[in-house]
User: Which sequence fits this backbone?
């Protein structure tokens, strides 16, 4: 009974549950109906009414919301709230110090300046929005029964839109129909991701077979799709028809807003997402706002200013209380009654006075500092933009600064994380060499072509290259991606908006083809391979001619032709012709769609058509072809006609006799369809694909046409062949390969061609059966190919393997059934398709492999070398395979041939832990004998130790000890990196990595890249910069302190996520070493100057309090008090903050070591703030007491004594700025003259026009009385001199006796150009550490053999494979050692001067044992000076084996080096093998 009563309740609960589930599902999806079905429905009834319209608004404010919203934003700054509070406090009569209205003036001025700046930026966004919203497009109108023109902003979700060629998409549209017979639409996504290659999009499957034009009135389906999101590569949904049938929707059916229609006359679609819900708008975040390291330091000092202010106010309040208390009950004459007319107690007086003093001393907190910093940063960004050295002519792109407020961080970087492909390399893939069927073809002529290659400088080339990147130039503001839309518009729409230049630019863009520079296209074939290709195709032609089966072809020749067929067809390249820009060549002779159903398969592949490949079956299949419905009549070539032909001569151009026996019928409708092969353009999705297609074309195997169901290839002798394309399994990053399933026209066999990364293809090659000769041959091919792959990787080439597989009819039918089930599955479709692809891609036959060269960008090795000398640690994080990455690393000087390489490859977490442990032991054994009392002792003489200073910010107090960076390189692969980034191992990994001079992470995923950056930034508390060019670098760029995007071939995702965008990697050198250094130096000095200036001015009033009973009155007129900082002393520091250059750009580039100045925050250390404060108080004492004693016992009134003090303070502050200014320009002089003139003008006008302004005091005619007075002028000379003498004396002594590297650089700038060049060339001698924190020319070393201890000397036998001179530290050279040095090595040691260490740097403890090392390796030098180090003798072929002693013997570690042994253990630390094996050498060293 109880059970029965429970049932209704349970039923009810389950019903509620179902409803909730349904509701949650509705929340996750959106349902789109066609608007024409609801054209007459009221607003409430239209089902699409809740979706955003297509009007975009990127502005922040409206007319009504501007004031409240802007003020709200500004009051997020604590300083602004503080100043408004003080201004309002001044309205309270009991505590007011100034006229209330006057006290408001500075705050109102500061808020107004910021508001006007915000308003101007917002107005620019508004103008851009208006331009975009008023572009027009064709929308279907039910009332008129046709497509009518409407503005973009009037488009709604559910509208039908007709798009024409070269038109830009106004919204995200689902493709329902195109004029293309294959139901394809080609789009260019340059405005979204910068890629100029074409992408294919398909009509929704259920609208595929429409015979007539699409009629919107017949449409009655409903679309259910996911909610708007910003993932450009994902779209999921269903279209539900009236019949109840559901078809899945994918990203290939969606056209995104901002893309351009190409190669398609017309397309129709329905709007799914509009306006701010489109994927393009959801991806547009605009400029980013970060807080710089300097700003964080400054905030700490602002806090100290508040403390000082409160202390001063408290002191004054206590003083005033005591002053009042001493009068007792007698009321002093000057006492003011309370508002009620009663006496105030001394305690109440002190409390009121405390508040009054806060108002009087408010200037101590620099109100104008924040606005000045913003103005200076904007000016700095402007000057960086104007630097023509950062402009790239080839791509017509400038540096873009997208984060306006972290320019000074560029001068403080410590770690750089870089991508490789496209960042260090060009991403111009050039076919270099290949191996086919185990035979290697070196392509020597092609190598010579690449070596001497100079790109043609013709105007046409320039046009082409410029066109490709037009969309990349734009303003910094947040409407970047929407603004760019206008750039690549069709000429027609440009006539509407009126810009002819833009129209011309758009037409250039439409003609541009990605990855098609002459360097990439014009490949010189290898003569040996060309002969084989010709021989093979002529034999095949002969066999076809004599109806012989193709299986009789020798297997090596068959492999060669298959190899080139695979290169030609295993890709997604679109063929287009240049006479119709971006319109593809149509070569269609049979309209068949790819296999969709099993019935279709059975119909198409009847037994008669799947017989072994005889020529007759090939002919019969041709006869059954339907002629094209474009009006081409078929003239079929029969075998009898063929028999009359003679064989083609080898040199005869292909295609000259194609009418006679072409497998495709020619067209006789009056239009010539056979475009010359030289004129065809290939639109590839990746540069690798383009390189392989151009390589095949060099061997006369040309891709001439591509349709959804067939690929047309032209082969030598055989003419044009049509491969029926059954399936394309696209490339994905998990499988790392792509495959095509085709029916071979000559053999009628179903063949799978696969190309992909060697690491995956080699695993799915069929294991050869060595029992027969064929199996043995296959095994030989696999082994040889693997050897060649290793060689290619060692040469830094990108490797791809090519393989094939022949399927029987039964195998194909079985696979097809599963594959079609996977394709139609609604749940887990991706996984099922992935499994289906894996089932097909097994037991392949290896055909060969290719080596593609990705050329280094210009100037990359020099840039990396320079950045490393600047003390920057460079890590390269790449997805490339290890060998390729290592060799590119050598080419770009990331790894040094004389460096030892630690390679970490582990298969498990435990193995990784063991490897890291061993590496740490090895580093300690070799470089840092780990006994505690010898911590600073043992630097081996064949290493270059460098000291890297951790951030000196307060947050990094735990990281004060310097750590050593050794001449080691670390190479780690993706799998090991995944283990190393585990919480338990990350500290060990970091300990190993930070000890190495260079780190190379291979095969790393985007997530791993960002995790590495985050780990280094958070654990080491260092400043990090990430630089990359592709979408896979976005997460790394966003995690770093500063993100730099390269606007390269990979598109614009990296740029959109970055703080700075550069056209080339080499520009990073000037951006950091010059602009970064300047920006940091200027802002650091400006902030310190601000604190000094305000403290000095406020202290004048503080000293006066001792003479006025701490009453809060001032001898300076309130107008001067309020406007002193805002007007009289504001301009010169802005000019200095914007234009000052402590060292010239040329010297900064030639002496990268000067960059260390910013890394160590030398310009703004915590003690400098306090030094400035002490100096400010001293100067204010001088400026107060000299006039005080000068006017003592005279009858001058308060303001006649106070005005000279104001004048003297202004002069002192300006001369102080002059002492701190490094570069004088006419603008500096003008600003100082203007400030002084402005002060006197305002003073004279104000004193003349104010006879009774503020009774009882009276400033009338004060300045006019002072100007004729000689005493005033004497004070103007004596006081500033006395005030600034200590600072000037300190600067002079420090610059002469203990010059900092920057001051030495400045002295260099003053020398004649010739002398400077000589000194700089001397300083660049290749001795000395690349990370030396001071220019090598500053250190002078003399040999001191007398201090040499025998036990500490180590002699190193010279290795035959050594790539550099064997240098030893001078003090370690006995006479017997000198013979190892050639005269050239000795001559290059520069004679320079050693300097004492800087104060304030941590010093490693000095021990007796370390004295035997060269003077240059003294610990004192580590902290500030440079030293000359020995070039290590370690060679590339050295393997390092660890022989760790028992636990008790920790101080002494032996290690053995053997150059011919390779270590068997997986966990060994082994260097890259680059040079030939040297003589066996063994070295036992006891440290």
Assistant:
């Amino acid at each position: 009974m109880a059970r029965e009563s429970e049932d209704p309740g349970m039923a009810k609960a389950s019903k509620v549950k179902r409803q909730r589930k349904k509701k949650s599902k509705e929340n996750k999806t959106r349902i789109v109906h066609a608007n024409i079905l609801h054209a007459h429905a009221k607003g409430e009834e239209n089902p699409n009414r809740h979706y955003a319209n297509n009007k975009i608004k990127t502005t922040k404010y409206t007319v009504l919301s501007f004031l409240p919203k802007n003020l709200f934003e500004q009051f997020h700054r604590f300083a602004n709230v503080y100043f408004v509070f003080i201004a309002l406090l001044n309205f309270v009569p009991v505590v007011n110090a100034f006229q209330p209205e006057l006290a408001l003036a500075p705050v109102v001025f500061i808020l107004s300046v910021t508001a006007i700046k915000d308003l101007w930026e917002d107005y620019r966004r508004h103008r851009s929005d208006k331009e975009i919203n008023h572009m027009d497009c064709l929308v279907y109108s039910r009332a008129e029964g046709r497509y009518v023109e409407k503005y973009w902003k009037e488009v709604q979700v559910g509208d039908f839109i007709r798009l024409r060629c070269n038109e830009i998409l106004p919204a995200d549209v689902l493709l329902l129909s195109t004029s293309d017979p294959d139901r394809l639409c080609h789009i260019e996504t340059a405005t979204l991701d910068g890629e100029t290659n074409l992408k294919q999009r398909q009509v929704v499957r259920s609208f595929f077979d429409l015979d007539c034009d699409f009629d919107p009135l017949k449409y009655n389906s409903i679309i259910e799709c996911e909610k708007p999101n910003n993932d450009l590569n994902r779209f999921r949904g269903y279209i539900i028809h009236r019949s109840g049938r559901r078809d899945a929707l994918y990203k290939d059916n969606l056209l995104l807003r901002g893309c351009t229609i190409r190669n398609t006359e017309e397309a129709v679609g329905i709007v799914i997402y509009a306006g701010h819900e489109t994927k393009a708008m959801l991806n547009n975040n605009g400029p980013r706002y970060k807080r710089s390291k300097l700003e964080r330091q400054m905030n700490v000092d602002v806090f100290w200013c508040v403390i000082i202010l409160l202390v001063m106010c408290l002191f004054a309040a206590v003083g005033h209380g005591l002053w009042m208390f001493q009068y007792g009950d007698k009321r002093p004459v000057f006492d003011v009654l309370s508002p009620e007319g009663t006496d105030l107690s001394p305690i109440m007086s002190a409390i009121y006075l405390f508040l009054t003093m806060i108002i009087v001393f408010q200037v101590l907190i620099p109100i104008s500092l924040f606005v000045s910093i913003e103005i200076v940063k904007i000016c700095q960004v402007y000057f960086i933009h104007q630097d023509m050295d950062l402009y790239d002519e080839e791509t017509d792109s400038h540096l873009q600064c997208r984060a306006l407020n972290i320019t000074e961080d560029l001068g403080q970087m410590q770690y750089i994380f870089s991508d490789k492909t496209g960042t260090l390399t060009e991403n111009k893939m050039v076919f270099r060499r290949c191996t086919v069927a185990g035979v290697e073809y070196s392509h020597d002529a092609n190598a010579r072509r690449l070596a001497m290659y100079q790109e043609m400088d013709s105007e046409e080339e320039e046009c082409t290259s410029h066109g490709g990147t037009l969309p990349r130039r734009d303003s910094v503001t947040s409407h970047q991606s929407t603004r760019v839309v206008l750039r690549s518009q069709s000429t027609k729409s440009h006539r509407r908006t009126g810009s002819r230049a833009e129209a011309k630019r758009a037409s250039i863009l439409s003609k541009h083809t990605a990855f098609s520079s002459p360097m990439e296209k014009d490949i010189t074939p290898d003569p040996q391979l060309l002969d084989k290709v010709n021989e093979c195709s002529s034999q095949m032609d002969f066999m076809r001619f004599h109806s012989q089966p193709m299986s009789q072809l020798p297997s090596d020749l068959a492999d060669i032709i298959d190899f080139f067929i695979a290169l030609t067809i295993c890709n997604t390249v679109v063929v287009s012709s240049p006479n119709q820009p971006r319109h593809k060549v149509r070569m269609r002779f049979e309209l068949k769609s790819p296999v969709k159903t099993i019935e279709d398969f059975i119909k198409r592949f009847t037994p008669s058509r799947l017989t072994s490949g005889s020529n007759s079956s090939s002919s019969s299949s041709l006869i059954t072809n339907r002629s094209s419905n474009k009006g081409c009549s078929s003239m079929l070539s029969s075998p009898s006609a063929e028999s009359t032909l003679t064989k083609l001569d080898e040199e005869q151009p292909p295609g000259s006799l194609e009418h006679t026996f072409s497998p495709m019928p020619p067209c006789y409708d009056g239009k010539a369809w056979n475009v010359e092969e030289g004129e065809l353009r290939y639109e590839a999705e990746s540069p690798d694909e383009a390189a392989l297609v151009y390589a095949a074309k060099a061997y006369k195997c040309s891709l001439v046409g591509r349709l959804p169901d067939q690929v047309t290839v032209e082969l030598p002798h055989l003419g044009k062949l049509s491969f029926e394309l059954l399936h394309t399994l696209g490339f994905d990053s998990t499988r790392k390969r792509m495959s095509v399933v085709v029916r071979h026209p000559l053999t009628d066999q179903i063949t799978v061609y696969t190309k992909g990364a060697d690491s995956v293809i080699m695993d799915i090659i069929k294991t050869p059966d060595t029992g027969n000769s064929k199996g043995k041959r296959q095994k030989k091919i696999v082994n040889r190919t693997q050897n060649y792959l290793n060689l290619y990787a060692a040469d830094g080439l990108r490797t791809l393997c090519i393989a094939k597989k022949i399927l029987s009819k039964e195998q194909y039918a079985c696979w097809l059934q599963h594959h079609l089930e996977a394709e139609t599955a609604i749940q887990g479709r991706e996984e099922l398709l992935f499994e289906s692809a894996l089932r097909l891609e097994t037991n392949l036959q290896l055909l060969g492999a290719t080596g593609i060269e990705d050329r280094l960008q210009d100037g990359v090795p020099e840039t990396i070398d320079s950045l490393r000398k600047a003390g920057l640690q460079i890590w390269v994080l790449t997805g490339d395979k290890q060998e390729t990455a290592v060799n590119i690393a050598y080419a770009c000087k990331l790894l040094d041939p004389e460096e030892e390489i630690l390679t970490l490859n582990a298969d498990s977490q435990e193995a990784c832990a063991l490897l890291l442990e061993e590496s740490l032991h090895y580093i300690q054994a070799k470089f840092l004998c780990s006994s505690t009392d010898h911590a600073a002792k043992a630097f081996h003489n064949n290493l270059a130790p460098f000291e890297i200073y951790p951030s000196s910010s307060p947050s990094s107090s735990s990281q004060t000890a310097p750590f050593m960076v050794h001449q080691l390189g670390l190479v780690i692969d993706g799998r090991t990196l995944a283990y190393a980034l585990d919480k338990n191992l990350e500290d060990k990994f970091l300990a190993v990595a930070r000890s190495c001079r260079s780190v190379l992470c291979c095969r790393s995923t985007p997530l791993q890249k960002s995790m590495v950056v985050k780990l280094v930034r958070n654990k080491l508390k260092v400043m990090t910069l990430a630089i990359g060019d592709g979408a896979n670098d976005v997460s790394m760029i966003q995690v770093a302190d500063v993100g730099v995007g390269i606007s390269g071939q990979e598109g614009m995702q990296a740029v959109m996520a970055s703080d700075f965008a550069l056209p080339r990697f080499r520009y990073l050198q000037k951006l950091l070493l010059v602009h970064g250094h300047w920006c940091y130096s200027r802002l650091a000095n400006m902030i310190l100057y601000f604190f000094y200036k305000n403290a000095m001015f406020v202290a004048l009033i503080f000293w006066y309090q001792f003479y006025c009973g701490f009453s809060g009155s001032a001898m300076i007129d309130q107008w001067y008090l309020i406007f002193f900082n805002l007007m009289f002393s504001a301009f010169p520091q802005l000019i200095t903050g914007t234009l000052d250059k402590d060292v010239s750009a040329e010297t900064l580039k030639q002496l990268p070591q000067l960059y260390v100045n910013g890394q160590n925050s030398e310009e703004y250390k915590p003690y400098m703030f306090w030094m400035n404060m002490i100096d400010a108080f001293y100067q204010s004492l001088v400026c107060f007491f000299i006039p005080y004693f000068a006017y003592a016992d005279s009858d001058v009134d308060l303001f006649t004594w106070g005005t000279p003090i104001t004048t003297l303070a202004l002069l002192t502050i300006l001369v102080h700025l002059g002492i701190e200014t490094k570069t004088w320009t006419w603008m500096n002089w003008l600003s100082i003259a203007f400030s002084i003139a402005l002060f006197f003008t305002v003073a004279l006008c104000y004193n003349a026009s104010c006879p009774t302004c503020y009774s009882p005091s009276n400033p009338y005619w004060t300045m006019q009385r002072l100007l004729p007075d000689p005493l005033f002028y004497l004070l103007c000379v004596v006081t500033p001199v006395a005030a600034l003498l200590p600072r000037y004396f300190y600067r002079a002594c420090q610059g002469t006796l203990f010059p900092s590297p920057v001051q030495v650089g400045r002295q260099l700038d003053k020398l004649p150009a010739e002398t400077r060049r000589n000194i700089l060339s001397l300083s660049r001698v290749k001795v000395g550490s690349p990370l030396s924190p001071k220019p090598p020319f500053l250190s002078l070393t003399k040999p001191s053999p007398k201090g040499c201890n025998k036990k500490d000397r180590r002699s190193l036998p010279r290795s035959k494979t050594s790539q550099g001179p064997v240098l030893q530290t001078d003090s370690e050279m006995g006479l017997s050692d000198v013979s190892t040095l050639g005269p050239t090595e000795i001559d290059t040691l520069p004679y320079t001067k050693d300097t004492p260490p800087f104060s304030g740097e941590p010093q490693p403890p000095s021990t007796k044992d370390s004295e035997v090392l060269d003077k240059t390796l003294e610990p004192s030098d580590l902290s500030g000076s440079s030293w000359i180090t020995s070039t290590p003798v370690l060679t590339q072929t050295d393997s390092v084996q660890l022989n760790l002693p028992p636990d008790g013997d920790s101080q002494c570690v032996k290690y053995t080096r053997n150059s011919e042994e390779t270590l068997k253990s997986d966990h060994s630390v082994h260097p890259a093998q680059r040079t030939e094996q040297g003589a066996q050498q063994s070295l036992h060293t006891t440290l």
Remarks:
- The chain has 48 helices and 37 strands.
